[in-house]
Amino acid sequence: MDQADVLIVGGGIIGLAIAIELRQQGATVKVVSRDFAAAASHAAAGMLAPRAERLSGPMLDLCLRSLALYPEWSRKLEELTGQGTGYWPCGILAPTVGAVLPDRAKCEESREDREDGGDREGVGSGLCLSGDAIRQYQPGLSEAVQAGYWFAEDAQVDNRLLVNALRIAAQEMGIELQDGVSVEAFLQENKQITGVLTSAGRQQAGHYVLAAGAWSSELLPVPITPRKGQMAAVRQPDNVIHPLRRVLFGDNIYIVPRRDGRIVLGATSEDVGFLPHNTPAGVTQLLSEAVRLYPAIANYPLQECWWGFRPASPDELPILGPSPCHNLTLATGHYRNGILLAPITAKLLAQAITNPQNSDLLLNSFSWKRFHLPTTQSSPSPPPSPSPHSPTTHPPMQLTSPPPHLPTSPPPTQDILTIAGRQFTSRLMTGSGKFDNFDVMRQSLAASGSQIVTVAVRRVHTNAPGHEGLAEALDWGKIWMLPNTAGCATADEAIRVARLGREMAKLLGQEDNNFVKLEVIPDAKYLLPDPIGTLQAAEQLIKEGFAVLPYINADPLLAKRLEEAGCATVMPLGSPIGSGQGVRNAANIRIIVENANVPVVVDAGIGTPSEAAESMELGADALLINTAIAKANDPVAMGRAMGLATEAGRLAYIAGRIPVKAYASASSPLTGMITADERKG
C-alpha cells in the first residue's frame, strides 16, 4: 500500500473503530500495533453502563450519545462480517448491600424525571427497588441486599466478539493492519509529525492518531498511567433453577452474565504500573465480593482468570481531539469506558480529522489542554460525580496492605515526571562526576532516590581521570542513563558526541534510549552555555530522533524557541556550574515555568537542600544536582537530603503557599473570648 492518509498507533477497540469510520469516509488507513491481543479491550467485561456508573456533565453526554449509537453500529458490523458482537440491551441492576437504602426523595425525583422525560444525572434514570422488588428482578441475591436500582436502558456487549468483528471488518474494508510492530517514537518538526519510527522502519502518513491506551505516555508526554485490572470468569451450570440473567453492578464488583452461560467478574483497580499476571490476592478478592453479592457463584466452576491495563488520566476522563501537533489526534485515556465510548469516539474524531472546521464542540471538554491550565482555574471537564466505583467516595478494589504507622500526606499518586514519553517517580536527577570513588557514588545516588543519572560521554570515551570504568560502575538496568555532551564547545562537536552517547547507551543495554543532555559551552572560565550553538545542535538532533534536554541560561525566549523546536525539556541554570550560589535568577525561571509545555529542570548552582526545595517551589518539574552531593562532607547523607528536599519542594508547590501580606492575621478566632466584664461576673 502507498503512504496512508491516516496512520493509527494502537490496535485496540478505539483504534480499530476510528480506522473503520475513517475508511467509510474514503480515507486510506493503516493501523500499527505491537500486540493486538494486549489491548485493554480484550480484558474488559463489556458493560455499557453510563447510568449505573452515575456519570455526570460532559462525560454523561458523551457516554449517552455513544450508547445510542450501539444498536445500529453493532448491527452493521454483524452484517458486514457475519460475526456476532454480543450486543444485549439487558439492563443493569445495582444492588445496595447493608443498611444503606435508596433515598425516598431521590426515588420520587427519579419517578418525576421519567414522567417528564428528564434523565440527565444518572441516578434519575434508575428505578428504585425495595429488597423484595429487586429479588423479583433477579432471584438468588444475597440476604444482605436491602434495595437497589434498575437501569433499564443500560446494556452489555461481548467485548472479545466485538473486537474480533472489528478486526475482520477492517481487513475486509482494505485497512492495513500491522501486528507485532512497535512504534518507538513520533518524529516532530515545527509542530508537525513527520513520521513514526517503528521496529519495521520509518513510516509516514498525512495524519496520525495516538490510540495506544495505557502505553500512550511512552510515545508522548500525555498524562496517562496504566491501571491494572484483574478479572475472572465462572461457568453457570445448565440445570440452575434460577439462573443469573441480570448484570449486577455492586459497590466493589460487577457480575456480567453472557447468554452462553459464562459469567464475567471484575475488576480490581491497581496502580502497579505494567506488573503482569493474576495474583492470589486479586482473584480471592474478586470471588469473595461476587459470592457476597450472589452466593450461588461459590459453587460454579472457575473457568478463566486474566488481567489487563486500563489507560487512566488524572481525572479518569478520556483525552480526545487535536494535540499540540497539527496533524496528530489524541484518542486515549478512556479508562473503564473504552468499550462504551468506541462508537462516539470514532464518529467525533473521524469528523474532526476529515472536516476540522465542523468538529463537535463536545470534544473541547476532553482536550489535553485541561491538564495545562493553572490550578486556580476550573477544568473544562469536571470529574464524574460520586458513583459506586468512584475513587473519591467508594474506592475500587485495591490490593494494598495496611500502613505500618499513622498515615502522613504523601505526594499525589499521579505526580509522575514524564520526559519524552518515559515516566519517572523521582524528580531529582544526579550527576556521576566528582565523587571520591565509585562506591561513594553508588551509595549517594541510591540514597537520593534518583532514577536519572547523567554521564559525560566524551570523558567516558577518553577514560578521563575519575571516569575510568564509570560506564560499568552503575546498574543501568535500574537507572536511566542521560548521556551529556560536556566538554563540547561547538554545535558540531555536541552533535557528534550525542551520537556516541546514544550508541554507548545501547551497548549498556538501553536499546531504546535516545536521551541526550545537550551542553554547548565555549566559555572555559564561567562555563556559560552558548545559546546559538545550543539551538543549532538541538534542531539537528531532534531531526535525528533524539530526545533533547538542553542546558541553557535562564532565558525565557530561548527556552520557548527550544520547546517549539521539539526539545523534551528545558534546563535553565540556577547559577554557574559547581558554584553553589543557589538560584540567582528566580524571576526568569518563574517566567520559563509559566510559559513551558515541557518539563523545566533547574540545572547547576544548587548548593544546599533548602535551595533545592526553593527551586521546586518555583514550579520546576525536576532538578539536576551533582557537585553539591559529590563534594559534601558526607555525600551519602547529602544525597538523601537533596532527595527529600526535592520531594518537599514539589509537594509544597502543589499544595500552594499562603498569600504574603503586609499585616498580621491572627490564627486563633477572636469570637468566644472571655472579656474583662465576664471575668468580674
Overview of the structural elements:
It contains 18 helices and 29 strands. It is globular, with a radius of gyration of 28 Å. The longest helix is centred in the first third of the chain and has 25 residues, at 57-81. The chain has 681 residues and is α/β, with parallel strands linked by helices.
Descriptive terms for the model:
681 residues, alpha/beta, eight-stranded mixed beta sheet, six-stranded mixed beta sheet, 18 helices, globular
In the predicted model, the low-confidence regions spanning at least 5 consecutive residues are 108-124, 374-413
Please list the strands of the largest sheet in the order they lie side by side. Answer: 5-6-4-14-15-16-13-17
- Strands, count: 29
**Category by helix and strand content:** alpha/beta
Binned strand content: 15-25%
**Main β-sheet: number of strands, strand sense, barrel status?**
8 strands, mixed
What is the overall silhouette? globular
Average residue-wise pLDDT:
85
How large is the radius of gyration? 28 Å
Binned, the helix content reads 25-40%
N-C termini distance: 97 Å
- Tally of separate helices: 18
What's the SSE blueprint?
Layout: E1 4-9, H1 13-24, E2 29-33, E3 47-48, H2 57-81, E4 92-97, H3 104-116, E5 127-130, H4 131-137, E6 145-151, E7 155-156, H5 159-172, E8 176-179, E9 183-189, E10 192-198, E11 201-203, E12 205-210, E13 225-235, E14 247-249, E15 254-257, E16 262-266, H6 280-293, E17 302-312, E18 319-322, E19 328-332, H7 338-354, E20 417-419, E21 422-424, E22 428-431, H8 438-448, E23 452-456, H9 457-461, H10 470-473, E24 480-484, H11 491-507, E25 515-518, H12 531-543, E26 547-552, H13 556-565, E27 571-572, H14 586-595, E28 601-603, H15 609-617, E29 622-625, H16 627-630, H17 635-655, H18 676-680
